[in-house]
Amino acid sequence: MRLRSADPAANLNRSSCLLQAHWYLNGCACGERQERLINYVGDIQRLHEFGFDAAKFDGCGAATNMTYYAELMDATGHTFEVENCHWGSCGADSWYHNPDGSSCPTQDWCPFNHYRTSGDINSGLTSWYANLQSALKFLNDTAPLSVPSCWAYPDMMEVGRITGGSFAWSRAHFGAWCVISAPLILGLDLGDTATLASIIPFITNPEAIAVNQNWAGHPGRLAAEFMPPGWSHGKGALPAGHDRDGWPRNATLAEAQKACDADAGCGGITYHSADAAPEGALKMYLKDAGVDGATGDEDWTHYSKADAVQVWVKPQPGGRLAVFVVNPAQSGKAAQVEVSFAALGIANATSASVRDIWSRQEIGDVKAALKATVEPLDSAFLLLTPRS
User: Fold this and answer.
1) Residue 256 — very low, low, confident or very high, per pLDDT cuts 50/70/90?
2) Of 217, 247, 278, which residue constitutes the final position of a domain?
3) 95: closest CA among 124, 69, 59?
4) Domain containing 324: what range?
5) Rounded to an integer, what distance in angstroms lies between the CA atom of residue 163 and that of residue 386?
6) What DSSP assignment string belongs to 94-154?
7) Average pLDDT over residues 30-57
């Protein structure tokens, strides 16, 4: 039986008419360095006595046993919403190694309502996109660990605060959190009326919010990933005789491998793991046996996940499918994306009607594949209704 500390339905009913007050516990400013029973008990006693509705449990202090916290909250007879903010550390908390301090649930254990999958988000231009990648490991196609009352959470949103960002890029941020079922929690200056006016059109979009709230068996997944338009080049110039202009400019990784196989000058493609690169970057190097010996020159051409055009999908009630396409490139041409029905997960359909969630308008029918054009630092958010 999955261990729970709160009833999401009760929280939803109460939040529809009352302002909820949340408390922030185990923070970094005064984190205890030794685990003490009295601290656990005192935290929950005061949480209940002060009438708070929810609590965020940070990972800086030694009090990280989420199972014990859940048991103490249950004993009060009150329902609390719980955020596990242990930064995506799996197996045990990263500082004190408490096995119940993990922020990664299992199929049988999740004594919290949502859990951080990443470190802290910030207002940098690419921060939210990097945090989005941290949720991937919890969105397995067949057995995801982000499920009702136990949601994966790449941190609160920076919508309206992104340094150098535009309306479109803040809107893309909001859409990404919608399509992976992440809690929609905003953090911004309510006195900044100009910013509020700019984001109200999409943060109040009922169709985008419905995608986030609806449950039809899966929280959302990454369906396809494309090379950005054009190659990005490293330090050195391309070796003589190895111009890649003939290669597909908007290729999937599989297509890039196929192009390499057909190119006598390409000695292979090497993928560097996300764990070995900053901010979840996934780099791809083209090796050339004629440059720098057998291993090739890893400076001259590379692909980074930070530039990848991604296609995310989330099932919706009635057999419909939400499709979110995001282009994180900071400049260049628009991305021309084409994704087959099979890749989207609707292989049995012969056609589908398409509705633009951002504009809230029907835009016609498609057959066999979905095509989308997305400008740099922008997104497309679509709802497909398949027909067999």
Assistant:
1) low
2) 217
3) 59
4) 309-387
5) 39
6) TTT--GGG-SS--SSB--SSEEE-SS---SSTTHHHHHHHTTGGG--SSS-S-BTTBEEE-
7) 92
